[in-house]
Amino acid sequence: MKSIAVIGTRGFPGIQGGVESHSYHLYTHMEDVHVRVYRRRAYLTAQSAQTYPNIEYVDLPSTRVKGFEAVWHTLLSVLHIIFHRPDVVHIHNIGPGMFAPLIRLVGLPVVLTYHSPNYEHAKWNAFARWLLRQCERLSLRFSNRVIFVNKYQMEKCGALDKSVFIPNGIDAVTRSESTSFLDGQGIQPDNYLLAVGRLTPEKGFEYLVQAANRVSQVSQVVIAGASDHDSAYREQLERLDVNHKVVFTGFTTGEDLRQLYSHARAFVLPSVNEGFPMVLLEAMAYGLPILCSDIPGTRQVDLPAQAYFPVRDVSSLCDAIANLLNAPAGLQHYDLLQYNWQAIANQVLEQYDLAIR
């Protein structure tokens, strides 16, 4: 049985993040392989104890220090990998990809999944952005195969012979009839705008909060997500919420998140930077009307023109929200056939075979 070592993710299940959600769905759909996932101990939750037949966890020490946690944990993971020698190492994102040369040096093939250009995120200072660009160069040069979840980023990096576009996926969903979680949070069913994501500046939640407070038709906004390292960004959002329309539910998963998607009036994704946002696919699976910032990461799905608004443009977002809420409410139908996780897992397995050969 082929053995895969996975690094660059904080781990799963029950751990917040797009890469974490991607990894959970990808590896739980893989068959006839043994997957060893290196998790960051500081982020484990009660849900993280859940096990799967083909997946082994290696939980190593980590910090929650921004800019250091990934480097430290990946280094420890690589040292473990060197002595346990899997058939292939799968690295998620360009930061941890700085270790691709070392992994190749010890004779192990590398598959890199390029999720997003992290150096574009506002949370990094000039030195960190420079370092991430060097990590990108090392990642692309020394990986045997490179998977891009964003076809525009693949074109930007140059169409290398070893590169392939494989999007994120979505499983079939069923809407929840229950409103127990909403009731406990003081959320009005079918009458709120929903946004989901980690509370970090690249998600652009401040533009949604400002717009919601200007548009009289908006009675409530729900933001489901938590901060990673500090509460400064959430405090900024709370200050902007001058009319007290926003409900912060924190990191929300499982049935609670299902209820939020099932009873939302619409979904809003105001991000400044995205690779391929899985929350967008989730909102589409639930048939929600969608508004999203016009960036390459959101242009990968087939949405109507009125779903997009210029990034960082609060006035345009106000107009888009007003137009949406003035239109008749109702579920939408989206074609999601190409975003099947089982098919995506099979495509990734093919990349492993190519890397090994």
Folded structure, characterized:
This protein is of the alpha/beta class and 357 residues long. The chain is 36% helix and 16% strand. The protein contains twelve helices and 13 strands. The strands form two sheets. The chain has a seven-stranded parallel sheet, sandwiched between helices. β6, α5 and β7 form a beta-alpha-beta unit. It is globular, with a radius of gyration of 20 Å. The mean pLDDT is 94.
Give the key terms.
357 residues, alpha/beta, six-stranded parallel beta sheet, 12 helices, 13 strands, globular
Major beta sheet, strand line-up: 3-2-1-4-5-6-7
- In percent terms, what proportion of residues is strand? 15-25%
The beta-strand count equals 13
Structural shape: globular
Q: What's the mean pLDDT score?
A: 94
The helix count comes to 12
Structural class: alpha/beta
Order of SSEs: EHEEHEHEHEHEHEHEHEHEHEEHH
Distance between the termini: 16 Å
The main β sheet shows up as: 7 strands, parallel
Poorly predicted residue ranges: none
Rg over CA atoms: 20 Å
> Could you estimate the helical fraction of the residues in percent?
25-40%
Describe the secondary-structure layout.
Elements: E1 2-7, H1 18-28, E2 33-40, E3 55-60, H2 69-84, E4 88-92, H3 100-105, E5 110-114, H4 126-142, E6 145-148, H5 151-157, E7 163-165, H6 180-185, E8 193-196, H7 205-214, E9 221-224, H8 232-240, E10 246-248, H9 254-262, E11 266-269, H10 278-285, E12 290-293, E13 308-309, H11 314-326, H12 341-356
Parallel strand pairs: 1-2, 1-4, 2-3, 4-5, 5-6, 6-7, 8-9, 8-11, 9-10, 11-12, 12-13
Helix pairs in contact: 7-11
